[in-house]
Specification:
It is built from 7 helices and no strands. It is an all-alpha fold.
């Protein structure tokens, strides 16, 4: 599992060397009757706790959520198309391109339209020629 939080303590090389120097039988509890348990020994060996700085939410990826009412025919068709895009692993790219396209068109520009659909330039040229 990917755990993005920092470990509760940081241990120095010296602490790890002390741990490595413990005899094997102590690490596996063979001498548990005669000496304190290993966890108590480890607790005595630990260095002062180093508190890591608070972890800021610096994710570079942001999720966006929206709802579709599948009782409406147009939303149902859109939902089915989106499911198909997800199966083809093209959903996120299509959403990004779609938002770029709508924003560009609302500004009265067609740069993104021609970038995504270069054939539109030829169709517009043919319409103008007729």
């Amino acid at each position: 599992m990917n755990n993005l939080t920092a470990p509760p303590k940081e241990y120095s090389l010296a602490w790890l060397e002390k741990l490595a120097a413990l005899p094997q039988d102590e690490l596996f509890g063979a001498c548990a009757d005669f000496e304190p348990p290993l966890l108590e020994k480890l607790a005595l060996m630990t260095e002062p706790e180093i508190i890591p700085p608070p972890v800021k939410d610096t994710r570079l990826r942001k999720p966006y959520k929206f709802w579709l009412n599948v009782l409406r025919d147009d939303h149902l068709e859109l939902s089915q198309t989106m499911d198909s895009l997800k199966r083809q692993r093209r959903f996120a790219k299509t959403i990004r391109d779609g938002v770029r396209l709508v924003v560009d068109l609302r500004k009265g520009e067609i740069g993104v339209l021609l970038e995504l659909f270069p054939f539109v330039r030829d169709v517009m040229a043919q319409e103008i020629m007729h």
